Amino acid sequence: MDEAMIKLITEDCKKSCKNSVLFSMLKDQTILITGGTGFMGKWLAEMISYINDKENFNIQLILLARDIKKFEKEMSHLADRPYIRLLRQDVRNVHDLPVEINYIIHAAGTPDNREHVSQPILTIETFYKGTQAILDAASRLPDLKKIVHISSHLVYGEWDSEDNISEKFSGKVGISSINNVYAESKRIAETLCLAYRNQFKLPISIVRPFAFVGPYHDLEKPWAINNFIRDGILGGAIRILGNGSTVRSYLYGSDMAYWILVTLLKGQIGEIYNLGSSEAVSLNDLAKKIQTMINPNLEILSKSSKENYTNLSRLVPDTTKIVKALNVEETYQINDSINRTIVWNQLKGINKNNITK
């Protein structure tokens, strides 16, 4: 990875990590991250590496994933760190975990709705069998201190209010649509966490992620902000599916990683926390922001879409609970988040020859 790209990531971690001394509790401890090579896993690895470099805490990190070669290729600046261990395994087939593990962040599984529709059985198995396998193995660890289960905002179901979504809300999920396989799978995974917490006394907290932005997001994933940035960098029209009135919010990657690690240490057992930004933005305004930052002359096009996976026009979390209970805050607002994501991808050399439109 280019030195300028690494520098930008390090600056992000430094700014987001408000209290690195807090992580003294992790000194010489071992953390397992399932789904360790995805967007979340990469940012967590970056944040833990930053904390180790700054505080010399010797936090050990085990990243479990099906494709560790991807991490070795894309994260070569971290792959050879002595405290990072890559473990190739399908989460569904986990039987026993290394006995030295003290903390687990269970983040396995893709949020890509195209894969949920094309491979619904794999989606269900990953979140049901995979979660059960991890919790079974965790119940046998001799010195387990905490598990953070990464769920999804889609467990909230249908939402038709202009308010932000709080952890107390519970809506319905239509079980007759294949598009809801992911949401239902995440719901049963949360139920498994509840069952294991009650029956085996596993120390579990749950976070429900909303949308994120930042380096390491694959610009080909089917999310508006990724595609807008991709289109803008490539010099084409920024294409909005729908009329652009849909409202979302985006938490920056380094803030996301810091909030998860704080939840690992300070989150109450049995509690659920929203993970996302409370700064709402419509897709129209989002496209205009990206247009202004890349090239004001770029065209913005809107077109109707038959692919309505969530049927939710507004998805913005109420983050009051996590902000107050865990004393975290958003370091990067939407404009800075977009700008740094654009700069990082430009440094990466995104162009028509290395990305498929």
Automatic annotation (TrEMBL):
Domain of life, source organism: Bacteria
The NAD-dependent epimerase/dehydratase domain, residue ranges: 31-276
Q: Give the PANTHER family listed for this entry.
A: DTDP-D-GLUCOSE 4,6-DEHYDRATASE-RELATED
Question: Belongs to which family?
Answer: Belongs to the NAD(P)-dependent epimerase/dehydratase family.
Protein name, as recorded: NAD-dependent epimerase/dehydratase family protein
**Organism annotation:** Pedobacter hiemivivus
